[in-house]
Specification:
With 274 residues, the protein is an alpha/beta fold. The protein has helices at 12-20, 32-40, 60-68, 103-107, 110-115, 127-137, 148-154, 203-213, 244-254, and strands spanning 2-6, 25-29, 46-53, 57-58, 71-80, 84-87, 98-101, 120-123, 142-146, 157-160, 170-178, 190-197, 217-225, 233-240, 258-267.
């Protein structure tokens, strides 16, 4: 099985994909657009993408790509994010002058940098990519912040483990396939969809009232601008349901108030890992 991820091998996306598809061959992609292109063109069987971090918020680009492409969410999972200071074997903490990582990872380790003011935080395009570069350059005055998998994959040494500021750091991932390849599980209890409403008073309230009338639990709402149409927005929502029929009824009722409604996926809600 072939599975696409955004980022280098050893990234958190790689770790998330490995938990869902232990035997799969992972195709790393430089940008998210390439992930969806590979999936749409049949180069891979599925993609695993991050959609939301409990501290940093949503990956908004992925919402846009889910809407634009003929794909669907098959399942979701939660991954506990643990950041580690990684260096070339033989280095030591007192030799580190610069630490590279993705800007989000650097921001989630502010306390570490406050405790080590002599170390410069340097933004890089990818957590695992920073370890890959580190090991290629063999620079013992530099370090990287990434996952344990990244250290193992590239042969780095962990100098300090669990340096993130907040232990309640989770990322939610979606498994995405071509829409025709996804069959809804009979125990699905969560729906993701996108809709937009006309720009006039009361339309958004009417749309949201649909969820209340169906007794569904709205767990997330996100708005994104419509490209090429200033001040128009698409709303992305997640909601939980007790019966499959309620999801169909909610979508039917939404169409009465919305100019566009697209179901992005119907799946089982992920449980937080221990």
């Amino acid at each position: 099985m072939q599975v696409a991820i955004q980022g280098e091998l050893g990234s958190f996306s790689h770790e998330a994909a490995g938990k869902v598809f232990p035997q799969a061959t992972i195709l790393p992609c430089a940008v998210s657009l390439d992930v969806f292109r590979a999936l749409s063109q049949g180069e891979v069987d599925a993609a695993v993408i991050p959609i939301e971090n409990s501290l940093a918020g949503s990956v908004v680009e992925h919402y846009d790509l889910l809407l634009k492409n003929d794909v669907a969410i098959e399942s979701e999972s939660l991954l506990r994010i643990r950041h580690n200071l990684i260096a070339v074997p033989g280095s030591s903490p007192d030799r580190i002058q610069r630490v590279y990582s993705h800007p989000v990872a650097l921001a989630q380790c502010r306390s570490f940098f406050e405790q080590h003011p002599a170390i410069e935080a340097v933004p890089f395009y990818d957590t695992a990519g920073s370890v890959k570069q580190l090991m290629e350059l063999r620079d013992r005055s530099a370090g990287a912040i990434a996952s344990i998998r990244a250290a193992e994959h590239y042969g780095g040494e962990i100098l300090a483990a669990g340096i993130e500021d907040n232990a309640e750091n989770y990322t939610r991932f979606f498994v995405v396939r071509k829409r025709n390849d996804v069959s809804v599980s009979p125990d699905a209890d969560k729906v993701s969809l996108a809709f937009n409403v006309e720009n006039r008073p009361g339309t958004l309230v009417a749309a949201l009232q649909v969820f209340a009338d169906q007794g569904t639990n709205l767990t997330k709402i996100e708005s994104r601008p419509v490209q090429g149409k200033p001040w128009q927005y698409v709303f992305y929502v997640d909601y939980q349901l007790s019966r499959q029929r309620r999801a169909d009824t909610a979508i039917e009722q939404l169409r009465l108030h919305c100019s566009m409604v697209k179901e992005l996926g119907r799946y089982r809600a992920a449980q937080r890992p221990e």
